[in-house]
Amino acid sequence: MSVVTLVSGGLDSTLVTYLAKEEGLLIHPLFVNYGQRALERELRACKRAMTKLSLNNLEIANLAGYGALIRSGLTDPSQHIIEDAFTPGRNMLFLLVASAHAFKVGADAVSIGLLHEETALFPDQTSGFLREAESLIGRIMGRQIRVLAPLASFHKDEVIALARMKGIEGTYSCHMGDEEPCGNCIACNEFKIEEA
């Protein structure tokens, strides 16, 4: 089986790609530039992780105009990183682009690093969203492309523990994009909650 893995340089998507490699899947990693504030650091971390996995086929979808149009705390420094974090349609955009890429490279599935539904803050982080997205993708692509969320039964503390066990390091998960993680955005707060 072959899979397009959505990779961001963060812990969750990096772990998803490690797991796919361990399963012996043919991996097509895809990084989406959606105009995020943390683009530079995310992409750098992503490239390091893919190099460590000997995946030299990383593709980058340049969709920076999305963040310029759909402004949020993740794309616009003038907005609040937490209160304005919801970026409408972001995960659907990711899955649509990944599925179109899967169609072109002949992959069977796309993979996204969403965690347990109990951790969902937004409507596009739920199992219902994933089921409906898979159905819609099959309709618009004219063939089934599975939508996988290998970490959907995991909470962040379990992801952190598994990543440590696998020796994963050097990821970047802060939405601000500064050299040192801000400690306040949603991504940083996930680590705080799970360590408490």
TrEMBL record:
Its EC number is 6.3.4.20. Keywords: ATP-binding, Ligase, Metal-binding, Nucleotide-binding, Queuosine biosynthesis, Zinc. One of its GO terms (molecular function) is ligase activity. Gene3D superfamilies: HUPs (3.40.50.620). Pathway: Purine metabolism; 7-cyano-7-deazaguanine biosynthesis. The keyword Ligase applies. It catalyses: 7-carboxy-7-carbaguanine + NH4(+) + 2 ATP = 7-cyano-7-carbaguanine + 2 AMP + 2 diphosphate + 2 H(+). It comes from the Bacteria. PANTHER family: 7-CYANO-7-DEAZAGUANINE SYNTHASE. Belongs to the QueC family. This is 7-cyano-7-deazaguanine synthase. It comes from Rhizobium mayense.
